[in-house]
C-alpha cells in the first residue's frame, strides 16, 4: 500500500511557504501572492547579468509553485503526496474531475503497479523466542532434615534454572499478486524433552472479499498435518473464518474443525463467536472494544478441558512512548488468575512490557516481553507455587526499579547518541541541497534590496511597521544547554519585504521555505525571533517554526521598564 511522503520530503520545497499563503488559499489569494513575487523577481527588472540570472531562477521556482497550486488536480496530489506524487508515471491519463479521495486511490494503484516488479524480493519474517525460567527456589525453600542442617547443607545460593524453551519463525514469499507461500517452523523443549515441526502454507486471494489457504505440516511431536482455511467477508460488517485439519499420529487420525463468526457491533467494537470440534472441543464468545485511549475484552468459554470467563482492560496514555497499563481477571475450572502490568516503547522499533500473574493454584509469575520489529522475545519467570506477599512485591517493584535504572543509564544515553548520529547523517546528506537553498536565499535578499528600501520609506512616513532585526534558526535559551551553539541566520530583509500596509502575516507552514530563508540547522527545532517598531514603540516576538504569525500585536510590546 502506498504511503504519503515524510515530513522532511514535504518540507524540502514547500510551495505554500514559498508563496506565503494558507493551505486553504483561494485562487485569488494565490494569484495575488504570485503577482507580488513576480514583480520582485522578474528578470527584466535587473540589468546586472548575475542578478538577472539569479532572478530568472527564483522566478521559475515561483512560477512552478503557482502552476501546481492553481490546478485543482495537481494541488490535490501535492497536498497528499508532495512533489514526488507529481512525478508518478500515469497521472496524464487520470481524469481531471476527481476528488482528493479518488486521486489518493489512483495514486496507490499506480504505486502498486510499480511495486509488483519487486514482489519476488519481499519477505515478511516473524519470529518468537520464549525462555521459561524456574525461580521458585528463591521463595519456596523446603525445610531440610535435621541431619542436613547440622551438616551445613542449609546454606547455598538459590537454584534458578531454564526449564523450557520455544523458538518459532515464519517468512512470507509472494509468488504473484494473488498467491503467497508461507514457510514456518518451531522447536520446543520442556524439562529435557522436546521436538519440532515445519509447515508450508499456500494462500490465494480469491477476491476482494476473501482468501483461501492450504497447509501441510510435519513434525516429531504431533505427526503430519493436512489443513485448509477459508476467510470470507459476508457483508461489510460481518465476516467468517473456517478451518479444518487432519492430524496424523501413532494413535490414528484426529480431525479438527474451527469456525469463527465476527461482526462489527459499532465503530470500535467487535463481537466474536468461535466453535471448535476435535482436539480440545469448545465454544467461545468474546466482545472486544478498542479505542484510541483504551482496550477492553470480555470472553466466556465452555469446553473440554477448559471452561472459564475472562475480562481485561488496557489504558493507553497519549504520550510519545505509547505507555499502556493493563489488568485482567480469569476464572474457571483451573482456578483464578489475576494479572496486571505495563508496556512502553523504548526505541523506534522496540516495545518492552512486564506482567505480574497471581493465581490459585498457579502461584506467582513474572512475564517479561520485548517486541523488536517483527520479533518477539518472551521470558516467563515462575517465582512461587504459593501466594506469598513477598513474591508479589518483588515481582512488581523489581522490574520497575530495573527499568528505571536501565532507562537512565543505558537507553536514554543510547537514544541521545543515536539521535545525534542520525542528525549528523541527515545534515551530511542534505549539505548540497542546503548550500543550494542558501545561495537562493542570498540571491533573493539581493533582489529584495530596492523593494525593501521603498517599503521602509513608506512605513516610516506613516509611523508604520519597521523590522529592526530578525533571526531564524536554533536559539539556546536553556542554561543547561549553554554549551550548545546557536545556529541562526539574519532574515531582517526578507521579513521587511513581506510587510504590506503596516502588517506582516506568516501562514502555518515551515518558515524555511519563505523567500530569502533557508534551513540553517536541518533536523533541529527552529524559531523566528523578530524585533520591530510600530508607531514608534519597540516590539518583540518569538514564534515557532510552523506557527502562524501576525504582527503588530499589543502583546508583543516591550515595556519601558524592560
TrEMBL record:
Pfam families: DnaJ, DnaJ-like_C11_C, DNAJC11_beta-barrel. Residues 14-82 form the J domain. It comes from the Eukaryota. It is a peripheral membrane protein. The keyword Membrane applies. SUPFAM superfamilies: Chaperone J-domain. GO terms for biological process: cristae formation. InterPro entries: DnaJ-like_C11_C, DnaJ_domain, DnaJ_domain_CS, DNAJC11-like_beta-barrel, J_dom_sf, Mito_inner_membrane_organizer. One of its GO terms (cellular component) is mitochondrial outer membrane. Keywords: Acetylation, Chaperone, Coiled coil, Membrane, Mitochondrion, Mitochondrion outer membrane, Phosphoprotein. Required for mitochondrial inner membrane organization. Seems to function through its association with the MICOS complex and the mitochondrial outer membrane sorting assembly machinery (SAM) complex. Belongs to the DNAJC11 family. This is DnaJ homolog subfamily C member 11.
